[in-house]
Amino acid sequence: MKKLLLGVMAAAVVVSLNFGGASPAAVEKLRIAMVLWRGETEADQGFKDKLRELGYATQYTVMDAKQKRGNLRQLLTKVLVPNLGDFDYVYSYGTTASQMTKFILRNRVPHVFSNVAAPVRSNVVRSMDSSGENISGTSNRIPVSVQIEIILRILKFKRIGILFNPREKNSALMREELYRASEKFDFQVVDLRSPPAMDMLQKNLRKLTDRSVVVDAIYLPLDSFLITQAGKSGPS
After folding, report:
1. 79, containing H or E segment
2. Distance between CA 103 and CA 115 in Å, rounded?
3. Beta bridge partners of 159
4. DSSP letters along the chain, please?
5. Which residue would you say has higher pLDDT here, 200 or 227?
6. Between 20 and 30 A from 175 (CA), which of 9, 26, 118, 192?
7. What angle do CA 97, 169, 67 make, to 5 degrees?
8. Is 214 left (phi over 0), alpha (psi -120 to 50) or beta?
């Protein structure tokens, strides 16, 4: 539901930026390139549903990187850039896709992002008050300290393991926040480096299963690879 809401908010950004109150009938069909990191999510569907609900005719060109940076680079340089004139907007999902899309676009087409956990720290925007560029969007971030404070009301723990992907900016930033929260709430963080290589993740999961690494809880940061593999870390 939260992801769906973020997609709806991203759609609202498109409407407010471009149309200045113009009715849908007064606007020609919107041509939108959708740069996706891990296939269509609820946020992406919410983005499309909201524009349709508002009455805008839209034509989408979907580019799915399938969680591979090489694919993303090829899609942006070989498909998006040569056809920039065909798009009114470029939509991107997640930090990795949004970072690279912004770098490639260089303000040439309005860019709307969704589900970027730390837009400023990941250099997607200059500030949360004003991007300062031809880009705007939504963040799905809840401060880690707030998360921990709420979790501790339900579950008491002294050692928390973090499965984190060092190649993903979100993972690195949230790991830093978790360490700061550990000082505030007096618990120990156990690093479980899990880059997008299944053997690394499987090794860490085996350590947790055979109790060679003992923790009271596992923390999963906002990282597409880890989220898609979340079922392997235990029951939700």
Report:
1. none
2. 18
3. 188
4. -HHHHHHHHHHHHHHHHHTTT--GGGSPPEEEEEEESSS--HHHHHHHHHHHHTT--EEEEEEE-TT-HHHHHHIIIIIIGGGGGG-SEEEEESHHHHHHHHHHHTTSS-EEEE--S-TTTTTSSS-SS--SSSEEE------HHHHHHHHHHH---SEEEEEE-TTSHHHHHHHHHHHHHHHHHT-EEEEEE--S-HHHHHHHHHHHHTTSS--SEEE--S-HHHHHTGGGGS--
5. 200
6. 9
7. 40
8. beta
Helix, strand, coil share (%) of the chain residues, nearest 5: 45, 15, 35
CA–chain centroid gap for 112, Å, is: 13
Q: Residue 93: which of 77, 73, 60, 117 has the closest Cα?
A: 117
Walk me through the domains of the chain, giving residue ranges and CATH numbers: 2-137 (3.40.50.2300), 144-233 (3.40.50.2300)
Question: What DSSP string describes 114-177?
Answer: E--S-TTTTTSSS-SS--SSSEEE------HHHHHHHHHHH---SEEEEEE-TTSHHHHHHHHH
CA 145 to CA 178: how far, in whole Å?
Answer: 7
pLDDT in tens, 173-209: 889 999 999 999 999 999 999 887 768 888 999 999 9
- CA 60 vs. chain centroid, Å, equals 20
Contact in structure between 3 and 43 (CB atoms under 8 Å)? yes
List, for residues 77-128, the tens digit of each pLDDT value: 999 999 999 999 999 999 999 999 999 999 999 999 998 988 998 899 988 8
